[in-house]
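Dear U.,

Please find below the material for section 3 of the report. The protein was modelled together with zinc ion; I have listed the sequence and SMILES used, followed by the predicted complex structure.
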Amino acid sequence: MFCSLASGSSGNSYYVGNGDEGLLIDAGISSRRIVKALAENGISMSQIKAVLITHDHSDHIKGLTTLANKYKLPVLATPDCLKGISQHPLTAELDKSLMQTIKAQLSFRLSGLEVTPFSVPHDGMGNVGYHVRNSHASLTLATDLGVLTDEAIHYLKAATAIVLESNYDEELLQKGSYPPYLKQRIRSHQGHLSNADAAAFLQQHFHSGIQQIFLCHLSQHNNHPELARQSAIDALNGCTPDAGKLVTVLPRGQRSPLFHL
Ligand SMILES: [Zn+2]
Ligand SMILES: [Zn+2]
């Protein structure tokens, strides 16, 4: 099971579950919103066993302190990410005893799921994506990365469902009002994936084992859901007759429904 509670440059949080229990990836919206969005999808906090963090940017950790402290949730992140979290004003009050270290390429088991973090290039601390699997399905989340490395491509290709960043449309970014340094940061190898980057991955690497494609982390100012969706569908059109059915753009400011993987 998978759902997005929020996805985009204003806040990110995702749920991945295995029947009765599961975990969150990131807590970048308020704890109250996370609890409410989960409840609307029929998931209670007692079913959540941990929060995995991708990196220490505020749109991924904004609600973490309140959520983790209140529900005594283990917070799993790489050593550098935990260091970043400890120094971040939004997470300075996070209970240190909840922090647990994980390492890229080192799989662990949680709630009947096997989780493998993998490194991604981005300008946060200790950035990772996650590959999560059980016996019949798997999901790879690759968000906040400037470029798709061989490592990220490997885990995306290995999954039955992918959650792939599609942050910006190059033309909207180019014409938009962001200052040049910010445009440069977004485009850089430590920045974000564009619609064209996501499309290029799909065109080159899509195979019939990939059954669901979720586009995530859309920019509010430099993208539009329909542009991201169409770009992915155009890329898939030569590869599969089902392109339209495969692609879901995750909404920015609200939860998605719960998807069966
Ligand atoms: Zn982000
Ligand atoms: Zn980021």
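For the text of the report, you could mention the following: The domain at 2-249 is CATH 3.60.15.10 (Metallo-beta-lactamase; Chain A).

Regards,
Y.
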